Amino acid sequence: MKLNKLTTVFNPSSVLFLFLTLSFLFDFIDKVYIYNDINFIKFNRVLKFTFLLYALSVFVIHFKFFVKTIRFVLITLLLLTIIYLLKVGNYNVYKMEFLRYAFLLASFPLIFYVISNGNFKFTTKLYQLFKYIIIINTVLVLLGLVYDIQVFKTYKANRFGFNGMLLSQGFTPFFYLSATVLFWYMKDKKMLIVTILISFLSGVKGVYLAEFIALTLIVFYDKNLSKAFKIKGILVLFFCFTTVTMVILNISPFKELIKSDRLLTAIFSYRIEYSKELISLITKDNFNYLIGATGIEKVRLEMQIIDIFLFFGIIGFAVYSYFIYGIYKIIKKKYLAVILLLTVIITSIFIGNLFYIPMSSLLIVLTLLCLSKDEDFIKINPIA
Fold first, then answer.
1. pTM to 2 decimal places
2. H-helix or E-strand containing 292?
């Protein structure tokens, strides 16, 4: 089958939506495997591989369009690939890490093509998907909370938190953040409230930080809100954020850490200790400041800036800064999109997992591009 016929038979928008839907399903299946120590086929990996093959076909067909519109993405992927290839003798050691980082960049052209050619249609589809996933996840989280069902918990270890069907705690903040901002954009008050409330039960400090930053900025910059409402709203958000955070810090294992005068350890979940340990392991033989890891085993601390530096070095950090600036140029006229991008940057500094977990970065970029579309549709629709 010729490439142009392939994209005619399999509509890019439908393929992207199907990929997102199946990703949530297959990730949950993978979570069941993990929590029950079952070794079986990773359906989510097969799905991602198939999706990338299709994305590549779209890239080849519309190559001139992508070079003209999103050249910065192609340059970013090329430069990061060169950095990876410079890790001579360590290709197999870091292969999976590189593929994780490369997934978003390789699929970006397809995402951009769908959004730029779909007007508001895909935004509506994404909104509906978020809505159904949140509703299903709310039921699963409540079942997990009431009946103490292990597979619906955020952590396999003995720690409070329920994220339902979501695969990992690293993905959870970015999922709830994307849903929150999109529901505000669509003026769906009911789903916005449900999302915020159910996110409280995740037990993930990064979720609370992301929700607090995003909602505070949204309330502050929303021109339709009165000054009095903004003040009250921000105070309520601050109270909720501090209260939920304090509750989590007073539950094991954090309360024991605080009692032993290790407050920063509790707040950053051992990241400071892990950083000190990693620094002691770095040598000139296993690490290059320009291109990152060249032999060191640990290349991730779940702090985004440090993680990028560890794997791609100073050059990689500069490349990613260039990539983020490229995204900013696309979405800069839409205040909600800018707020989401800013929130993601700040949050990922402390929790990482934005570029390392493919679904995290893909969902964020997809939401950003949807928010960058014309808002006229929203203005003529009442609040749900």
1. 0.93
2. strand 292-293
